[in-house]
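name: query_chain
kind: protein
chains: 1
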Amino acid sequence: MPATCALTGKTYKTVKKRSHSHRGTNTKVKPNLQKIRIGNKSVKVCTRALRTLKNKF
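structure:
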């Protein structure tokens, strides 16, 4: 899966999008991934893990 966090393993979430008539359509909500460099390697990390990393280091 391309939309996964490298640290936490967080992936997309399946939700129902609701119309005005309250009819549900399945859709995916992707995590907020950011590219960061750890050493000389580029990884995708969700913003929650990024905030945790900033507090630790």
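note: Helices lie at 47-56.
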